[in-house]
Each structure stands twice: as C-alpha cells, then as structure tokens.
Amino acid sequence: SVLTRHHTMKIAILGSGYVGIVTGIGFAELGHEIVFIDVDERKVEMLNSSKPPIYERGLEELMKKNRGKYRATTDYREALESSELTFICVGTPSKGDGSIDLKYAESASKEIGKALKNNDNFHVVVVKSTVVPGTTEDKIKPIIEKESGKKAFEDFGLAMNPEFLREGNAVYDFFNPDRIVIGVKDERTKSVLEELYKPFDCPKLITEIKTAEMIKYASNAFLATKISFANEIGNICKKLRIDVYKVFEGVGLDHRINPSFFRAGIGFGGSCFPKDVRALIRKSEELGENPKILKAVMEVNERQPLKMIELLKKHIPNLRGKKIGVLGLAFKPDTDDVRESRAIPIVKALLEEGAEIIAYDPKAIENFRKFFPQVEYANSAEDVITKSDAVLIVTEWKEFEELDYSGKIVIDGRRVEKAMKEAKIYKGVCW
Ligand code: NAD
C-alpha cells in the first residue's frame, strides 16, 4: 500500500498503453505532474479529455479525479524539456521468430536522445517496457548517447524498472505492488528512483540493470509454467476422474508452494506471457541453450484450447451449419484486451469446421471484431445461450456465473460453477 507522497516530480510517460496510462495516472494520484507522449493521436486526444483509451477498472474515476495533473502530447521535445524523468512504456511485441521487436523502443530512444541534446538538466530515463536482458545497456543506451551527444550515467540517468501489474487489476496493482525492482548503475539515478518509490510500502530490490530485465522474464515464465503445469496435471486427472482443482487445493497448502495461479483450463493468453516466454526461448537459443521447460510450457498452452473442440465434437460430431455459442473473447476477465486470447484459436478452429458462431463478451467485442468480422456478435450472454446448439465458455467473466445453462450442452474452459451444476451436458476441459 502507499503512504503519503514526498516531493512533486515532473514525469514524462512515453507510450500511453495499458502500462503507460496506469503508471502515469497512478503517479498523478500521488501528486506528481505527468505528461503522456504517444504517437497515436486518438489516445492523446482521449487522455486530454480525461477519457480512458483502454478499459481498466477504476481508471476512469482516477482520471477524472486527477484532471489537471496530467496532459498528453505527440511532441517529444516539449514534453521532455518540461520533465525530470521519462518512463519508456512502449510495446515490445513478438517478431515472427519469437524474439522481441524493439522498433518502438528504438524510435522512442532516438526521440529521447534528440530531446536531451539541448537539455542541460540531469534527466532520468527509465525503461519500463519488458526487454530481454542486455537491451537497456546494449541497445537503448547507445541510441540515446548517439542522438544526444551525452554520456549515460553521467549526463543523464538510465535505469530499468520492470512492470508487474496485472491487466484487469492494474490500478489496484499500481498502489499495492508485491515488490518494486529497480535496475540501476549510477547513484544519482538510484536516489531519484528511491525518492519516487518512497511512498510504496513493499519490498524494493535494487539490482544491476540486466538483472532487473531478467527478473521480469523469470517471473512471467514461472507464472506461465504454473498454468501449463496445472493443465498437464489436469489432463491426467481428467482421464483418472480426479478433480484437479481439489488436487491443487491440497498441493497449495505446502508452504513452499504458493496456492495461487494453478488455474487449470484452456491456458494463458494476453500480451505478456506468450510473448515473454517466446522471447526468453529465443534469447536462450541465441546463447546456445536449449530451454526445454519453456518450450514445453508453450506446447501445452497451444494444445489446450483445441481440447474444447475435441470435447464438443464428441457431442456434435459434424459442426457444419451448427450454431456454436462462444462466451468470452477477452484473454481474461475484466479487460477489453484480446491479444493472444485463447478465443482466437478456438474461433478459428470452429470456422474451419464450418460452424456458425455467435459470440459475446462484456468488453472485448469491438477489439475481437477487427480480427473476425465474419462472426455474429450477440447483444448479451443470454442471447448466446438461447440461440446456440452448444456453448463454449472461453473467459471466466463474473456475469457468466449468473446465466441459466439448463438444457444446454456446455463445454467449459474456465470452470464456471453455475454451468457445472445446471447444464444438460457439461464437459470441463480438464476436470
Ligand atoms: P500497449 O500496446 O498497450 O501500449 C504501447 C503504446 O506505445 C501504444 O499506445 C503506442 O501507440 C505507443 N507507442 C509506440 N511507439 C511509440 C513511440 N515511438 N513513441 C511514443 N509512443 C509510442 O502496450 P502495453 O500493454 O502497455 O505494454 C507496454 C510494455 O509493458 C510492453 O513491453 C509489455 O511487455 C510491458 N508490460 C505489459 C503489461 C500488461 O499487462 N499490458 C504488464 C507488464 C509489462
């Protein structure tokens, strides 16, 4: 939790997506002055009129409350000149081979370098985007140095501060982090960041820059492993008619094993786990390592959603012309984000089988429609239930616990208790 703030800092947030906006608005709430920078003018305009460009619980209220403490612009130079510290929060997506694409981070670094050229203040640049170990010092530092003509750790500060927020809980997580990791080299930058994070009452770990980069990857890889592990045990349990959720309740009681996150189901999606595990695999291969566990984590994850189709076909062998309901399109509840959602391979497989799809999600329809315009989108979850021959539960939105599943064939990828109790035919993907 957060204690009271100390002194006001002028902070630039470069890249106003899920991470950037939550970080910026969070620091505004703590009393700092924020300027958001983005290349996307739509986001800049929305931020300037206090409208959240993304859905995140509690964000809109916090934006309204702190109106006046932040503004947004596309102009790097002006924004950086008027600030002491810049967080780089641009996306670092996967390339075709799994490695991370640094094009946004590189163009951002270039702009930072240019803006720092005629700036005589000691400006601190903090990489918050997830980048593979070595990136900050080997890729970002030389670009800023070249463009600015200045020396890192002397003329300007440079640090790596990985972000651990969970989409859907991001505002809560900003104020209540489990830990804060700060990778730094020079004392001046270290003290600026210690001051900034002073109000947070949680363990703070100061490390080398590349160690901080690795902590983020190791954390996400471990969480992804927990899910694939739960799924593998779940698949075995299903054959043995053992309830995997009971099993992990028992497993989690061991104090060496934290009980959370053993979520057996159809696997993980989102903009982070798949991308980060792949990037770590690529990086280790580049180093001559063969990361067998990481590869297996991804393999289990890719197979798992297709189990829903296998189960469905046991009850409806020919899906051609059948109307299949899909409940949930977001990669997890409480977000509108569909990046790497398990709904994508499921909808693809259903379309290949010739099924007609009727889908619903409380927040993610607009984002999903861009990829699948041919799908019919319902106005409500009830509509999906009444109009379909069978229902697949893909995301565990809370409101799906309140539907009437009686008389339906339900294939459940997320363990919705109400469906378990009521459906005429109910199949859990690994329970
Ligand atoms: P996002 O795609 O939502 O946002 C990135 C933003 O950067 C976009 O608004 C884009 O327009 C902007 N941008 C791109 N190039 C730019 C440039 N040159 N100058 C200014 N703005 C630019 O991404 P995100 O989900 O916020 O993730 C950002 C980073 O944080 C990634 O490295 C990600 O791995 C990491 N991360 C994400 C999460 C999460 O839950 N989303 C959690 C922890 C870490």
Describe the structure.
Helix 1 packs across helix 3 (59-65) and helix 9 crosses helix 11 (273-286). The protein is α/β, with parallel strands linked by helices. It has 3 domains: 10-207, NAD(P)-binding Rossmann-like Domain (Rossmann fold, 3-Layer(aba) Sandwich); 217-303, 3-Layer(aba) Sandwich (Rossmann fold); 306-428, Rossmann fold (3-Layer(aba) Sandwich), CATH 3.40.50.720. The strands form 3 sheets. A 6-stranded parallel sheet has the order 3-2-1-4-5-6, sandwiched between helices. It has a 6-stranded parallel sheet with strand order 11-10-9-12-13-14, sandwiched between helices. A two-stranded parallel sheet has the order 7-8. The model has no long low-confidence stretch (mean pLDDT 96). It is globular, with a radius of gyration of 23 Å. The chain has helices at 18-29, 41-48, 59-65, 76-81, 103-117, 135-148, 170-175, 187-196, 209-240, 244-252, 273-286, 292-303, 306-315, 343-352, 365-369, 381-387, 417-422; strands at residues 10-14, 33-37, 70-73, 85-88, 123-127, 156-160, 180-183, 204-207, 323-327, 356-360, 376-377, 390-393, 409-412, 425-428. Nicotinamide-adenine-dinucleotide binds next to helix 1 and helix 5.
Indicate the topology.
Blueprint (H helix, E strand, L loop, with lengths): L9 E5 L3 H12 L3 E5 L3 H8 L10 H7 L4 E4 L2 H6 L3 E4 L14 H15 L5 E5 L7 H14 L7 E5 L9 H6 L4 E4 L3 H10 L7 E4 L1 H32 L3 H9 L20 H14 L5 H12 L2 H10 L7 E5 L15 H10 L3 E5 L4 H5 L6 E2 L3 H7 L2 E4 L15 E4 L4 H6 L2 E4 L3
Parallel strand pairs: 1-2, 1-4, 2-3, 4-5, 5-6, 7-8, 9-10, 9-12, 10-11, 12-13, 13-14
Helix pairs in contact: 1-3, 5-6, 9-11, 9-12, 11-12
The protein binds nicotinamide-adenine-dinucleotide.
